[in-house]
Every structure is written in structure tokens, then in C-alpha cells.
Design a protein that fits this description.
The chain is of the alpha/beta class. Helix content is 13%, strand content 28%. It has a 17-stranded parallel β-sheet, covered by helices on one side. The protein has a 17-stranded parallel β-sheet, with no helix packed on it.
């Protein structure tokens, strides 16, 4: 917009002010407001004169964004820029913010500030505050912070979009160096980082808070953190979505390197890592807390195929949902449908071993991991790669790769699972040891890879499980050609680690098969359905039942629940058979299906007459069951409350109070009158007696209440078959007698 200048008036005002103040120095006005009326990028003709003007014409003013920022930088105090224009502002150089400023756009859909793929958009100096709202920052291109480089300032982003920005080193969208960054109701989409991480945001030692925002389609090449990389700072994510972000290395959604990250009420889905941690990667000494959030459908990459001169296939990436080297706490959250990559195939001309499938479909843990009130479900590890025949020796095939271990969780650190459900996870299949064509193999050709172990959990260190359900997990099948691989174990595989399990239920898990196909094939072993332990395993107050072994050359009988006798901590149940040891009671626990029985996670309910009811050792009984139901309860009705075995406590409803029973009795009298079973006059008299009984009960006059109820019974008997039907009389008398018995046990 063009307007008439009046610099003489401005000069006169300044002179008068100087005279009034005794010719004191006059400072520029504080807290100026500038309104942008042009989408051009010209600078101010006279920075510091208090007038936003990019036009050299002495008559007209044109206020551009750059001119307004130059004037704001020269004024002490916090200034504000608003816009009377919409459309696209294309920058020739970055906008330098050296004093506190608010840039308030007309709406992210209406105004875009663009670096045109050539320059960064905004640079915020140390100690400076920038409030940015209702704009789109697009196509910035800088070494650090293509959209914004915050060099120790305080930046607040509200209702804005960052799209298509690029950085050669850090932070395609925003790079925050030792500053404070708050992002609310905003979108980061399609931002790109080339080298040092943080496709959407890079935080180096600063404090970042992201609220009600979306990060989608951001990526980093040759580094970590497709959505956000947090390097030694603090990052808080609340009610936000991370979807479809990717990192060529680690941490498709978020990469945390030594900082503290808190994620609440958020969703991470469809993120991808070329190496490890499809959704989230937490490096050593880092701390990540996940609360009320969902980590779903994230993946890691497949291993590369063998390539001359290296003939072995690479292993698949690990930690489909989360990779943890530091401290990770998962509470009230769901880790579902994540997957790791397959192993690469061996190289053909010289023959080669197939790579192993990636471990830890849901979570891969090398540090300290706590899972509480959470669900780990439907995750999967990758299959082993194919071993290819040696061309120089056609009767020997390359070994197939092992399927990935730990469909739900892979643990090589310290893992504590409490009040949680680990169900429906799958370990990867072993790769085949390929046999040759003509002249072909004349005997067994190549060892196929074993199926992945621990469809639910693979443990190689310390595992503590309390009040949790491990159900419906499946071990991987062994490769089926040449010498077939062994089937993997379904529920838990403990490899030289230590497991302590209390009040938990291991049921319905399935071992992988070790079968072979074709001629000259040797079958492998079927996997254990429930628990395979090569280390220390102690089980207390728990159920291990109805698990199914895989099929193989070893008879399937005897490998359904346990691979060998376990340490019986007391009061356990196994069924069927005695594979877990002769000291453990064999009895059908009568479990219901895995379903929602209340609480945040799925459980197997104990059906009526289950031998697990009131049968646990009270010395090891947790305060609640998996659902949060108070333990112990008198599930068998013998008057003594004892904990139930397993993760589920049968809940006993408290008997109705005498006051509640009187209320029900009054309602029934009214219903019988309405239905014609009691005459109106008799009904009125009976209701009067019940009203009197209620008042006496409220006054703690127990004996009087009993006398009134007895009089009520006598009145009903007197009218039985006359003005009260026999059916109604029987019902009312039984209820009144029950109240009397409760008042006078």
C-alpha cells in the first residue's frame, strides 16, 4: 500500500520532545507496530529512523517485511509486525532478528515466507525473543536451520507451517543451538537435512517443547533423526503426530543423543530408519519417557545383499518401534505393528551367508527399560536372508541367515515388565540354504537359518515380569531347504540371562517349525511354545499353559510349555503335561480368551472353578492384578481372601448394604402394585412400613428396624393368596428376611 510521507512532522515532534525534556537525548519509540503492505523483499531506505519504508521515492512509503525487521532491530523493546498482504514473500537473503519481535501473519495458508531454495529464512541472535505465528516458512536453504536458525534465543512458533526447508548440516526446518524453542499447533512437512541430523528440528543443548503439532515426511540423509534430533538438550512432545519421517541412519521419528525426552499423548507411525530405531532411537546415557502414546507401523531397513568381494548379506536393522541404549520408560502406551528389516541374501558367484533378520520388532533394549500398563502387540522381526550356492562347489550351499529374535522385545540390558500385555508378536523365519540346479546337489546342500527366538520376548540379560500376560506370540520357522533350520521359541527365550516372573500368565504361544522341503533334506527341531531357558529362570504364582510347540524332527510332545524344568518359586500351574518340572501342579487353569476384561491391557480371565482362584502364595502377592484390581479377594467364597495365580484376580462384588436392599424392596413393592400382584390399599400399607424401617435404619436403631421388617413379613403372609399373589409374597418375604439376616448375623 502507498501512503503520503510527512518527515517534517516527525522531525517537529522529536524537536518538541527534546525541548520539553531539557534537550535530553531522544531515543526511538519503544514497542513499535509495523504493518506490511508489500510482498517485495527490499530493505529499508533509512534504518533506524522509526519509519518502515523501502521506497526511495520521497513521497510514497512501501513497508516490506525486511524493512520492518530492520527498523524493529534498531528499536529497543519488543516490536510487532502484522500483514495487510497475502501470498508469497521470496527472500534474497536471510532475515536477521537482533531484537525482540513478534511476526504475526494472516494465516499459514495465506502467507508464505520463502528462501526460494537458495537462502535460509530467519536467523535469531543470542538472547533475542521471536514469536512467529500464522505463517508458512518454506524452501529455506542454509548450512544450519533452513527455516530458522536459533542461536541461543527464545523462539515460539504458533499455528504455522514449515515445509520444504533444507539444511546442509543441522535442522532442515529449525536448528536450535542452546536456545529455547516452543512449537504449538504447527506442521513440519517435507523438510530435509543432508548431513548432521534433524530433518524437522535439530536441538543442540537447548530446550524444545512441541505441542499439538504434526511432523510428517521429514528426512535426514547420512545421519539421524528424520523428525527431530535432540543432542544433549531437553525435548518434550505433547499430543503430537510423527508420521512418515525417515532417517538414513537411526531414529526415523526422533533420535535422542544424551538428552532427556518426554513424549505424552502422541502417536509415532510409519516412520523409517535405514539402520536402527524406526520410530525412536535413544543413545547411551539418554533418557526417554513415553506416556499414553502409540508407537505403530514403524520399520527399519532390510540388510543389503552380499556384494563382491564381500559375499555375506547384511543384517536387517533392529528396533522397529524403539531402539534403546540408555533409559527408556514406557507407561500406559501401545507398541503395535512395528517391524524390523530382513537379512540380505548371500552373493551368488562365490556363494555367501544370508544376513540375519533384525531383532526387536517392538523394542530393542541394550540399556534400562521399564514397560508398565502397556501393550506390546503385533510386532514382527525380519526374516533371515537366503544363503546362495557356491558356484565352485555345486554340492555345498551357503548358510541361510537366522530370523530376527524378540518379536515383541529384544533385551540385552535390564527389562522390567509390569501390568502389561505382550501378545501376537512374531519372530522372523530363517533363510533357506539354497541348493543348486544342474548338475545340482547330490546330497544336503547348505544349512538353512534358524527361526527367530522369543516371539514375545528374547532375553539375554535381566528380565523381571510381574502381573503380565504373554500370549499368542509365535516363534519363527526355520529355513526349509538343505539342513532345515530349527524353529524359534514362541513366548520367551532366555539365553544365558536371568528371569524372575511373578503372578503372570504365559498361554497360547506357538513355537516355530523346523521342517524341510524337497529331497535330501534334514529336518530341524520344533521351537518351544512357552518358555525356553538356557539361563536362570524362577517363576512364582504364575500360569504356563496351553502353549503349542513347533513341528520338527524332535517329537512335539514334551516341548509345549517349557524346554526343561524351571525353578519353582511356589504356587504355579502348568497344563498340559509336566515339561516345566514335576514340582509344579498340573491342572487346567480354565482361562478365558485374551480380551478386554477391564483395565488398560488385555488379559485372560479365570473362569468359574479355576484351580488358580485363591491359590497363590500370599508372600509374593502384588497389591493389584494386571488390570489394577485390588488383591487379594475371596474368589472362592470360603470367607478367606487369597490371591489368585496368574495376572488376573477374580473380582468379588461387595454385597449390597441393608439400605440398598431396602431401596430395592421398596421398588419391587411398587412394581408389584403396578403389575396387579398387590392391591393398591395393601401396597400403601406395606410401603409405609418400609418407609419406617428406612428411617429407623438411618438412625442406627437396628433392633427397631428388624421389628418393623418382621411386621412387614407378617403383613405379607396375612395377605398371601388374597390381595397379594403367592409369587409376589415369596419374593418380598425372601428379601426382607435377607435384610434381617444381614442386620443380625
Amino acid at each position: 500500500m502507498l501512503s503520503t510521507k510527512n518527515k517534517f512532522r516527525m522531525t517537529s515532534v522529536l524537536v518538541i520532545l527534546a525541548l520539553v525534556s531539557g534537550f535530553a537525548n531522544v531515543s526511538p519509540a519503544h514497542a513499535a507496530n509495523f504493518t506490511i503492505d508489500s510482498t517485495a523483499d527490499a530493505g529499508d531506505v533509512n534504518p533506524g529512523d522509526g519509519i518502515c519504508d523501502s521506497a526511495p521515492d520521497p513521497v510514497l512509503t512501501i513497508c516490506t517485511q525486511r524493512a520492518a525487521i530492520q527498523e524493529a532491530n534498531s528499536l529497543a523493546g519488543a516490536d510487532t509486525i502484522t500483514f495487510n498482504v497475502t501470498g508469497l514473500i521470496t527472500l534474497d537473503n536471510p532475515l536477521n532478528i537482533s531484537d525482540d519481535l513478534t511476526i504475526a501473519g494472516p494465516g499459514a495458508a495465506d502467507l508464505t515466507i520463502s528462501g526460494n531454495g537458495a537462502v535460509g529464512v530467519l536467523f535469531v541472535n543470542p538472547g533475542v525473543t521471536l514469536n512467529l505465528q500464522d505463517v508458512t516458512i518454506a524452501n529455506g536453504n542454509a548450512d544450519d536451520g533452513g527455516g530458522i536458525f536459533n542461536n541461543g534465543g527464545t523462539v515460539t512458533v504458533l499455528d504455522s507451517t514449515f515445509s520444504g526447508n533444507r539444511a546442509a548440516y543441522t535442522g532442515g526446518g529449525i536448528s536450535n543451538f542452546s536456545g529455547t524453542l516452543n512449537v504449538t499447533n504447527s506442521t513440519f512437512s517435507g523438510n530435509h537435512n543432508a548431513e548432521s541430523g534433524g530433518g524437522g528440528i535439530f536441538n543442540d543443548g537447548g530446550a524444545v517443547t512441541v505441542t499439538n503439532s504434526t511432523f510428517s515426511g521429514n528426512d535426514t540423509i547420512d545421519d539421524d533423526g528424520g523428525g527431530i534430533q535432540n543432542n544433549g538438550g531437553t525435548l518434550t512432545v505433547v499430543n503430537s503426530i510423527f508420521s512418515g519421517n525417515s532417517a538414513q541412519l537411526n531414529g526415523g521419528g526422533i533420535f535422542n543423543d544424551g538428552g532427556a525426552v518426554t513424549i505424552m499423548d502422541s502417536a509415532f507411525s510409519g516412520n523409517f530408519a535405514g539402520f536402527d530405531g524406526g520410530g525412536i532411537y535413544n543413545r547411551a546415557v539418554g533418557e526417554v519417557t513415553v506416556i499414553n502414546s502409540t508407537i505403530s507401523g514403524n520399520t527399519t531397513d532390510n540388510g543389503n545383499d552380499g556384494n563382491f568381494p564381500s559375499d555375506a548379506g547384511d543384517d536387517g536393522g533392529v528396533g522397529g518401534g524403539i531402539y534403546n541404549q540408555g533409559t527408556l520408560n514406557v507407561t500406559n502406551s501401545t507398541i503395535i505393528g512395528n517391524a524390523t528389516g530382513n537379512g540380505g541374501d548371500g552373493f551368488f558367484p562365490s556363494g555367501g551367508t544370508g544376513g540375519e533378520g533384525g531383532d526387536g520388532g517392538g523394542i530393542y533394549n541394550l540399556g534400562t527399560l521399564s514397560v508398565t500398563n502397556s501393550t506390546i502387540s503385533g510386532n514382527a522381526t525380519g526374516n533371515g536372508g537366503i544363503g546362495v550356492i557356491f558356484a565352485s562347489n555345486p554340492i555345498v550351499g551357503g548358510p541361510g541367515g537366522k530370523g530376527g529374535d524378540g518379536g515383541g522385545i529384544y533385551n540385552q540390558g535390564t527389562l522390567t515388565v509390569t501390568n502389561s500385555s505382550i501378545s501376537g508378536n512374531t519372530a522372523g523365519n530363517g533363510g533357506d540354504g539354497i541348493i543348486g540346479g544342474p548338475p545340482g546337489c547330490v546330497g544336503p546342500c547348505g544349512d538353512s537359518g534358524d527361526g527367530g527366538d522369543g516371539g514375545g520376548i528374547y532375553n539375554q540379560s535381566t528380565l523381571n515380569v510381574t502381573n503380565s500376560t504373554i500370549s499368542g506370540n509365535v516363534g519363527g520357522d526355520g529355513g526349509s531347504s538343505g539342513v532345515a533350520g530349527d524353529g524359534g521359541d514362541g513366548g520367551i527365550h532366555n539365553s544365558q540371562g536371568t528371569v524372575n516372573m511373578t503372578n503372570s500368565t504365559i498361554s497360547g504361544n506357538v513355537g516355530g517349525d523346523g521342517v524341510c522341503s524337497g529331497s535330501f533334506c534334514v529336518a530341524g527341531s520344533g521351537g518351544v511354545g512357552g518358555i525356553h531357558s538356557e539361563g536362570t529362570l524362577k517363576v512364582t504364582n504364575s500360569i504356563i499353559s496351553d502353549n503349542t510347540p513347533g513341528v520338527g524332527d524332535i517329537s512335539t510332545s514334551g516341548r509345549n510349555n517349557c524346554s526343561a524344568p524351571i525353578t519353582d518359586g511356589s504356587n504355579n500351574l502348568q497344563f498340559p503335561g509336566t515339561t516345566c518340572g514335576d514340582s509344579i501342579t498340573v491342572a487346567d487353569p480354565l482361562l478365558g480368551p485374551l480380551q478386554d476384561n477391564g483395565g488398560p491391557t488385555l488379559t485372560h480371565a479365570l473362569l468359574p472353578d479355576s484351580p488358580a482362584i485363591d491359590a497363590a502364595d500370599p508372600a509374593f502377592c502384588p497389591a493389584t492384578d494386571q488390570r489394577g484390581v485390588i488383591r487379594p479377594q475371596d474368589g472362592d467364597g470360603d470367607g478367606i481372601a487369597i490371591c489368585d495365580i496368574g495376572a488376573f484376580e477374580v473380582e468379588v462384588s461387595a454385597p449390597p448394604t441393608p439400605a440398598e436392599q431396602l431401596s430395592d424392596l421398596t421398588k419391587d413393592v411398587n412394581d408389584f402394585v403396578g403389575g396387579g400382584d398387590i392391591s393398591s390399599g395393601v401396597g400403601t400399607a406395606l410401603l409405609s412400613k418400609l418407609q419406617t424401617a428406612q428411617k429407623k435404619l438411618e438412625g442406627d436403631q437396628t433392633n427397631t428396624t428388624v421389628n418393623v421388617l418382621q411386621a412387614f413379613i407378617n403383613s405379607v403372609e396375612a395377605q398371601r393368596g388374597k390381595q397379594i399373589s403367592a409369587t409376589a409374597a415369596d419374593d418380598l418375604i425372601a428379601q426382607a428376611q435377607a435384610i434381617i439376616e444381614q442386620l443380625q448375623p
